[in-house]
Amino acid sequence: CLLYSSVTPDVRERTLIAVKPDGVQRRLVGEIIKRFERRGFKLVGMKMLQASEAVLGKHYHDLQRKPFYPALIRYMASGPVVAMVWEGHNVVRSSRLMVGETDSSQAKPGTVRGDLSVHISRNIIHASDSVEVAKKEIGLWFHSAELINWETSDHSDLYQV
Ligand code: UDP
Ligand code: MG
């Protein structure tokens, strides 16, 4: 049936999630990982790094003409970031819903931003906004050898197989 065809799981979809420097400073890395783990997504890559201006310039390429761009790059380079790749059915869309609105003051309670942050300029987390963008961002932040293909033992509890 057409209505339900979108429910067919694409369990290999991946997204880039990054805990931004303010999230790391505020010791929210564990809290954020916990939410994605409990939801049922699979962690396939993770590293802590000081983001370079070069990577940040590419990552936020589309925003380079925005007035907040210089401050955004300074913020993202102000300390370490924890970059992660999470995998699972519809993980790009689901993550965006879990993360909440860009403007933390508009983000709904229950979302990462809505529960843990108050202002758009310090919104603690990044999540890719489409499957295509996710592919580009994962390629920018990770080498393919840093991504692990593995199976969770509870796969059939999460997905009809
Ligand atoms: N940002 C900002 N001021 C704005 C809009 C965005 O500081 O008025 C920052 C904020 O950190 C945001 C990032 O720029 O997360 C990227 O903006 P985007 O619109 O892609 O939001 P996101 O995809 O992170 O929700
Ligand atoms: Mg974005």
UniProtKB/TrEMBL annotation:
Q: Name one GO biological process term.
A: UTP biosynthetic process
Tell me where in or outside the cell this protein is found. Mitochondrion intermembrane space; Mitochondrion matrix
Gene3D superfamilies xrefs:
Nucleoside diphosphate kinase-like domain
Give the EC class as a word: transferase
Membrane-topology annotation of the record: Peripheral membrane protein
Q: What superkingdom does the record give? A: Eukaryota
Q: Which reaction does it catalyse?
A: a ribonucleoside 5'-diphosphate + ATP = a ribonucleoside 5'-triphosphate + ADP; a 2'-deoxyribonucleoside 5'-diphosphate + ATP = a 2'-deoxyribonucleoside 5'-triphosphate + ADP
Which Pfam family, giving just one, matches this sequence?
A: NDK
Q: Where does ATP bind?
A: K20, F68, R96, T102, R113, N123
Keyword Magnesium present in the record's keywords: the answer is: yes
* Active site residues of this protein: H126
Q: Which cofactor does it need?
A: Mg(2+)
Key words, A-Z: ATP-binding, Kinase, Magnesium, Metal-binding, Nucleotide metabolism, Nucleotide-binding, Transferase
Q: Which GO terms describe its cellular component?
A: mitochondrial intermembrane space; mitochondrial matrix
Q: Where is the signal peptide?
A: none
Nucleoside diphosphate kinase-like domain residues: 12-149
- Which molecular-function annotations from GO does this UniProt entry contain? ATP binding; metal ion binding; nucleoside diphosphate kinase activity
EC nos: 2.7.4.6
Q: Which PANTHER family does the record match to this protein?
A: NUCLEOSIDE DIPHOSPHATE KINASE
Instruction: Tell me which HAMAP family the record gives.
Output: NDP_kinase
Q: Which NCBIfam families match?
A: PRK00668.1
Q: What is this protein called?
A: Nucleoside diphosphate kinase
Biological classification of the source: Eukaryota, Metazoa, Chordata, Craniata, Vertebrata
